[in-house]
C-alpha cells in the first residue's frame, strides 16, 4: 500500500459487498459509511491522479483534528443509539471516525492511517462481539458467516493500516498517486 490508485478499484468492490453485510447485520453506522465509501472511491481515483505528494498536518492542527474526531464520535454514538443500532459506541467509530479517515485518505494526509488503525481495532472488536453473541444465541440479526468474514477482514485491514502508516510516514508513498 504505497499510495497506488488501483486501491480505489479494489476499495469499490469491497465497499459494495460490505454495504450488503452491514445492512443485513443492522450495523447502521457501517451501512451509511459504506455508501460514502462507494461514492468516495471514484473521487479518490480522480484526485490521486492529480496530486502526487502526501501531506501532514502541523502538530497543533493534528490535535484539533483528533479532538474533533472524538467529539464527532460521541455525537454519532448518541444518534446511532437513538435509531437502535447494534453496539452504537463501536458502530459510531465506524461511521464517524471512518468518514474523517476516508476524507484524509482521499486528500493524501498521513494522519489518515492513525485513524484507520483505531477504526480497524474497534471494528474487529465490534464484529467479534456480534459473532460471539450469535454463537451464544443472544443475537439473531445477520448471519454468523457474514460476521466472521468481517472479523477476518478487519484483522487484514488492521495489518494493512499499520504497514501503510509505516510506509507513508517514511515518505515512500510520495509520487505514486498516479501509478495504476
TrEMBL record:
Record flagged with keyword Transmembrane helix: yes
Native source organism of the sequence: Mitsuokella multacida DSM 20544
Name of this protein: Nicotinamide mononucleotide transporter PnuC
Gene name of the record: pnuC
Keywords on record: Cell membrane, Membrane, Transmembrane, Transmembrane helix, Transport
InterPro entries documented for this protein: NMN_transpt_PnuC
Similarity annotation: Belongs to the nicotinamide ribonucleoside (NR) uptake permease (TC 4.B.1) family.
NCBIfam families listed in its UniProt record: NMN_trans_PnuC
An annotated Gene Ontology molecular function: nicotinamide riboside transmembrane transporter activity
UniProt main location, coarse: membrane
Membrane topology: Multi-pass membrane protein
GO cellular component, one term: plasma membrane
Record localization: Cell membrane
Membrane-crossing segments per the record: 7-25, 31-49, 65-83, 114-135
Amino acid at each position: 500500500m504505497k499510495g497506488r490508485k488501483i486501491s480505489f478499484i479494489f476499495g469499490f468492490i469491497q465497499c459494495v459487498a460490505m454495504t450488503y453485510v452491514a445492512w443485513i447485520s443492522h450495523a447502521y453506522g457501517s451501512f451509511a459509511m459504506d455508501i460514502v465509501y462507494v461514492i468516495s472511491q471514484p473521487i479518490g481515483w480522480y484526485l490521486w491522479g492529480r496530486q502526487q505528494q502526501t501531506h501532514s498536518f502541523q502538530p497543533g492542527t493534528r490535535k484539533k483534528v483528533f479532538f474533533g474526531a472524538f467529539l464527532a464520535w460521541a455525537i454519532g454514538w448518541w444518534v446511532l443509539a437513538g435509531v437502535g443500532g447494534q453496539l452504537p459506541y463501536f458502530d459510531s467509530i465506524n461511521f464517524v471516525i471512518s468518514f474523517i479517515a476516508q476524507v484524509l485518505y482521499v486528500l493524501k494526509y498521513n494522519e489518515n492511517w492513525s485513524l484507520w488503525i483505531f477504526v480497524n481495532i474497534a471494528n474487529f472488536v465490534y464484529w467479534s462481539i456480534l459473532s460471539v453473541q450469535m454463537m451464544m444465541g443472544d443475537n439473531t440479526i445477520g448471519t454468523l458467516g457474514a460476521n466472521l468474514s468481517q472479523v477476518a477482514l478487519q484483522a487484514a485491514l488492521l495489518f494493512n493500516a499499520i504497514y501503510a502508516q509505516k510506509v507513508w510516514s517514511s515518505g515512500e508513498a510520495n509520487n505514486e498517486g498516479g501509478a495504476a
